[in-house]
Amino acid sequence: MYLVFRKENKLMSIVNGSLVDLPSPSSLSYFWNFGSLLGLFLMIQILSGLFLSFHFSGDVNLSFYSVIHMMRDVNYGWLLRVIHANGASMFFLLMYIHIGRGLYYGSYRFEKVWLSGVTIFLLSMATAFLGYVLPWGQMSFWAATVITNLLSAVPYMGGLLVEWVWGGFAVGNPTLTRFFSFHFILPFVILFFVILHLFFLHEKGSNNPLGLSSGCDKVMFHPYYSMKDLYGFFMFSMFFIFICFMFPYIFMDVENFISSNPMVTPVHIQPEWYFLFAYTILRSIPSKIGGVVALVMSVLILYFLPFFLKHRFRSNLFYYFNKFLFWFYMINWLLLTWIGACLVENPYMFLGTCFSIIYFFSYFMFWLI
């Protein structure tokens, strides 16, 4: 009776086809857990952000003190804020691993799935930047000033774009109000693209470690992979809880605990750790417009992978030089992230330029072999 209801009821049949009887390759490893973990942390971010918005004031004179009010006066407000702030870092950590798995195992060959996933990545970066500005601390204010000024590099209409984003002739109250509005709306846009991503994934079917056709060797999603996902939820949730309670401010910049002051520039302006690789590329090029183009292309280049990487086998398991190149690329990405947190002086500037060239050259090498 339950089996009939599960398959014939319209709503239950959708759930059944997505979470129970979904045919999945039998060889999936734990690297395929990160998609579901991203879904979990997206919901954590949306819910915690919703409750934080009840107490946040999007005004330059009140926003910093509204955050202090949340931390000190609201019941468990400190916990909500810590979960939301550290949840963003966990979300990007999972996303980078998820993208890395896709690069290694050739998931970019599924064009619709990959392109929708890269769009989610771009929207997440925009949402995270907007959220970083909201506390209106020193680093928030100056990050907003520096990043929005990059729009001035757009030919002919750069100045107009900057003024439109600012809502005036300088970063101020209209800027914060707009950022708060977009930061609240964009997670629901991301949720729409996640649904689209899952639709394309279920339409095409999951990739597998070998990158070969697995049509003749599939198993039901439940219980084989639902149990794996639950195990992943439990393990990563324990790690996340440990971070939130033992090192709650490990990912936060100390400058952001000071109220914004347009008259005092921080000694070293830097974004959150998950933007550091792109920040290094930006500051490695002396030309402003060249740096902006390189910054944008460092992410947009992911859109082109399905069209210029056409190996016979999807997975790098069959390409030994590709495996070496992939790990070389990963180490270079980590070095770019490290350089982004270093002072803007030699030898870090020189090393940042070298690693930036290697970053783009790695994609060219992927295409050649």
Automatic annotation (TrEMBL):
Its membrane topology: Multi-pass membrane protein
Alphabetical GO biological process terms: mitochondrial electron transport, ubiquinol to cytochrome c
Keywords linked to the UniProt accession: Electron transport, Heme, Iron, Membrane, Metal-binding, Mitochondrion, Mitochondrion inner membrane, Respiratory chain, Transmembrane, Transmembrane helix, Transport, Ubiquinone
Positions with a binding annotation for heme b b562: 84, 183
Stored CDD domains: cytochrome_b_C (cd00290), Cytochrome_b_N (cd00284)
Any one cellular-component term (Gene Ontology): mitochondrial inner membrane
Residue span(s) of domain Cytochrome b/b6 N-terminal region profile: 2-210
Residues annotated for a ubiquinone binding in this entry: 202
Cofactor annotation: heme b; heme
Coiled-coil features, chain-numbered ranges: none
Membrane-traversing stretches: 30-57, 78-99, 114-134, 141-162, 182-201, 230-251, 289-309, 321-341, 347-368
Cofactor note text: Binds 2 heme groups non-covalently.
Subcellular location: Mitochondrion inner membrane
Subunit structure: The main subunits of complex b-c1 are: cytochrome b, cytochrome c1 and the Rieske protein.
Similarity comment: Belongs to the cytochrome b family.
Role according to the record: Component of the ubiquinol-cytochrome c reductase complex (complex III or cytochrome b-c1 complex) that is part of the mitochondrial respiratory chain. The b-c1 complex mediates electron transfer from ubiquinol to cytochrome c. Contributes to the generation of a proton gradient across the mitochondrial membrane that is then used for ATP synthesis.
Protein name: Cytochrome b
Source species of the chain: Oxytate striatipes
Origin organism lineage: Eukaryota, Metazoa, Ecdysozoa, Arthropoda, Chelicerata
Gene responsible for this protein: CYTB
